[in-house]
């Protein structure tokens, strides 16, 4: 702004101006003035009137807070249910006996068979089954056999099994074992 120039103030409606003047003077508002303008204008009154407009404009309404709170509570409940379910599942899953199979070696007998040797660790008294496989140089399964192993009092045993192949094998190994 340049010195000496005044800023143009837009004209106000006469009812608004009269109500504002009356509010500043402390006198009752004229009859034609709006009811909201007739209230005394103080710092506390202007603050209480402005936040609902701004809060509504920016989405900070009480209904929005309640909705956000219920979404947060619902998410926390869902997380707690998933966590408790996982703990129960993991706890019950650990009660099964552990079966472990370790490859000890293989021997290529000829172009159509391979002999696989492995060590099986299983708790005493449990019958198991093991899948033995033969692989070619591209790691493609060319032979497969499921071996049924009866229960025993010895927890650690060694087995050797011959697997017939459809193509020449490069290696033989134990795929996995499970309880029967």
From TrEMBL:
Keyword annotations from UniProtKB, A to Z: Membrane, Transmembrane, Transmembrane helix
Q: Where is the composition biased (Low complexity)?
A: 24-61
Q: Does the keyword Transmembrane apply?
A: yes
Q: Pfam families, from UniProt?
A: DUF4307 (PF14155)
The segment annotated Disordered runs over 1-61
Where are the membrane-spanning stretches? 70-92
This chain belongs to the protein called DUF4307 domain-containing protein
Native source species: Agromyces luteolus
């Amino acid at each position: 702004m340049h010195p000496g120039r005044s800023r143009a103030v837009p004209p106000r409606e006469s009812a608004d101006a009269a109500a504002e003047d009356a509010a500043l003077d402390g006198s009752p508002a004229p009859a034609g003035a709006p009811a909201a303008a007739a209230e005394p204008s103080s710092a506390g009154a202007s603050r209480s009137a402005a936040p609902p407009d701004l809060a509504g404009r920016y989405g900070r309404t009480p209904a929005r807070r309640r909705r956000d709170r219920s979404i947060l509570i619902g998410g926390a409940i869902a997380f707690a249910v998933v966590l408790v379910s996982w703990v129960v599942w993991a706890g019950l899953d650990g009660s099964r006996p552990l079966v472990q199979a370790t490859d000890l070696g293989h021997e290529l007998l000829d172009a159509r068979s391979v002999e696989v040797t492995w060590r099986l660790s299983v708790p005493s008294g449990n019958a198991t089954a093991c899948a033995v496989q033969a692989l070619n140089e591209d790691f493609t399964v060319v032979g497969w056999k499921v071996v049924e192993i009866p229960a025993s009092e010895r927890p650690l045993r060694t087995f050797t099994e011959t697997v017939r192949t459809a193509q020449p094998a490069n290696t033989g190994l134990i795929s996995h074992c499970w309880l029967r």
